[in-house]
Amino acid sequence: MSVLLLVRHGQASFGAADYDALSDLGHEQARILGAALKARGVRPDRIVRGRMRRHDETAAGILDGLGGGPEPTIDEGWNEFDFLKVLAVHPIAPEPDLDHAGFQRFFEDATGRWISGGYDHEYDESFGQFTGRVDEALDRAAVASGVTVVVTSGGPIGVVASRLTAGDASLWQRFNRVAVNSAVTKVITGRSGATLSTFNEHSHLEHDRALLSYR
To answer: How does DSSP assign the chain, residue by residue?
Structure first.
């Protein structure tokens, strides 16, 4: 049996020159998660991360909170989709100065178009290609026994959660929209295959609402 703890990266630097870098809050979220895992007696046998900077920095923060652990390995199958490209090719331009709710509506319209499959030629990676590489990354991670921490993004976690509940990616948008930074989704694999045990668990942040973020 293997246990996969899929961790969404800490808060990125939304609106900054380099979105991919963690914010100060993101670094804190990662360290708190590592300390919470240590307090629960969770000692990962391996850590796998996507190649993005926010994955690297989140893994480093988790290791800091744990007080050490295995050197992370990289699997690009866990990279986030290029949401900037998905937003940029949407034919309806967003209104200026969107608030959070307005941006979320625009984001879901743009990703809905991407998901539809009717415009695949406009994207560097189609939704089908994205979900396919995440499926392959999940298969690779599930082969190893013991506990594996996978540091990734909300998009790949949403793919896994949808596959393991609906049998396809039809619930991806619903899972993706509620992903909390540094939240943990637990997948258990055994003889009967992979099972979603918990989704988006973030009790390590609930003692202080200022620690909760979704971007």
So the answer is: -EEEEEEEPPPB-TTSS-TTSBPHHHHHHHHHHHHHHHHTT---SEEEE-SSHHHHHHHHHHHHHHT--PPPEE-GGGPPP-HHHHHHT-SSPPPTT--HHHHHHHHHHHHHHHHHSTTGGGSSS-HHHHHHHHHHHHHHHHHS-EEEEEEE-HHHHHHHHHHHHHSSSTTHHHHHHTPPTT-EEEEEEETTEEEEEEEEE-GGGTT-GGG----
Query: Which token pair is 62?
Result: 């988790």
Q: Two tokens at 30?
A: 């990662």
Query: The tokens 């893994």 sit on which residue?
Result: 59
Strand order in the sheet with 46-49: 73-74, 46-49, 146-152, 2-8, 184-190, 193-201
Pull the structure tokens for residue 153.
């993004």
Whole-number percent of the chain with pLDDT over 90: 87
Place of tokens 């190649």: 51
Measured distance CA(8)–CA(87) in Å, rounded: 21
- The pTM of this model reads 0.94
Q: Per-residue pLDDT averaged across 3-21, rounded? A: 85
**C-alpha distances in Å from residue 3, one per residue of 24, 66, 150:** 29, 18, 10
Chain centroid, CA 11 distance in Å: 11
